[in-house]
User: Fold this.
Amino acid sequence: MSDLVCFATVDDLSARTGQTYSTDEEERIETLLLDASVMLVERGFDPSETDEYRLAAAKTVVCNMVARKLGSDGLADSISQQTMTAGPYSETYTFANAGEALYVTRRELQSLHLIGGFREVQAHTWADEVRPW
Assistant:
């Protein structure tokens, strides 16, 4: 188990969110930071083959992942859209992280170079299909 790498600390998260955490919260947050780090490694991020900038990017991504998770714990913070109608009494909520799960965005994967920023498109014409008989 000592081979596991955690890319961020509770202090890193606190510096980014501007919040202080109690001792009970810190234990949970350490677990979430480790879970988020493991998710990046499972997606192909290799900390042994990166430079300090990519490690700093991993720290930022891990903190963002955990901040989203912690933000979804409270109902008011997790609502991304709300619709109300006066009659006949309609109300709709859309939740930003309905499953309250850790997740990484496409942009964050691009910043870690785990996926490309651009899609490669190859031209394919009718002439490519014609075969001499």
User: Anything to note?
Assistant: The chain has five helices and two strands. Residues 16 and 63 are 8 Å apart (CA to CA). The helical segments are 10-17, 23-42, 52-71, 75-78, 106-111.
